[in-house]
Specification:
The protein is mainly alpha-helical and about 190 residues long. The protein contains five helices and five strands; from the N terminus they run H-H-H-H-E-E-E-E-H-E. Helix 2 crosses helix 3.
Length: about 190
């Protein structure tokens, strides 16, 4: 290559410098391809033999080895596979049956006593251990305490609970004062939701 550059009218020192520069560039490119293939395979597989195999393939065959490596490498990295598995798990959790309010159909938590959307009573606390129980249960499964039985049976296993921040209105449309409402027995008992 130095003779070719000398034949073009360049001095022998300049031709030697350009030749050395070209060889250094090619060697750096070759090393960069080897390092890239090794790092890429490390991000795609935990197998040590696959990592060393990709390194040797690209080191011995250079550009054809890189092309072969690109054809046979795993199509996704380990982090992409992990993210995909997290997305699949999240989708499966969404597919699983989540508890919904019988009154409005909104999603509710298992330990909620009332629905925050429509105020339907969902569960009742145990009279002894205060664990949340189904409205129809007569005995607490946690502490085996007998539960109070309501005078009237629960029709739809849900009852309406008036939130404390919504004032009760009388027949004339005038709101009762807060102190007078607390004394009444009607506000202490939840209303049945039919």
């Amino acid at each position: 290559m130095g003779e070719l550059l000398t034949g073009l009218g360049l001095s022998s020192d300049l031709a030697l410098g350009i030749t050395i520069y070209g060889i250094v560039i090619l060697a750096a490119l070759w090393l960069a391809l080897i390092v890239w293939a090794y790092r890429d395979m490390r991000s795609r597989s935990r197998d040590t033999f696959a990592q060393l195999g990709s390194l040797i393939l690209v080191a011995l065959l250079t550009i054809p080895g890189l092309i072969i490596y690109l054809l046979v490498r795993p199509r996704e990295t380990l982090s992409e596979a992990y993210e995909r598995s997290l997305e699949e798990e999240a989708l499966l959790q969404e597919i699983e049956e989540k508890p919904t309010c019988p009154g409005c159909g909104q999603r509710v938590q298992d330990n909620w006593q009332a629905c925050p959307h429509c105020f339907t009573r969902l569960k009742k606390p145990c009279t002894n251990c205060h664990q949340m129980l189904e409205l129809s249960w007569q005995v607490c499964p946690y502490c085996t305490a007998q539960q109070r039985v309501a005078a009237e049976p629960i029709v739809a296993t849900a009852s309406y609970v008036r939130p404390s921040n919504i004032p009760e209105q009388t027949a004339t449309g005038v709101q009762q004062p807060q102190a007078r409402r607390r004394g009444s027995t009607r506000s202490a008992e939840p209303l049945e939701f039919v």
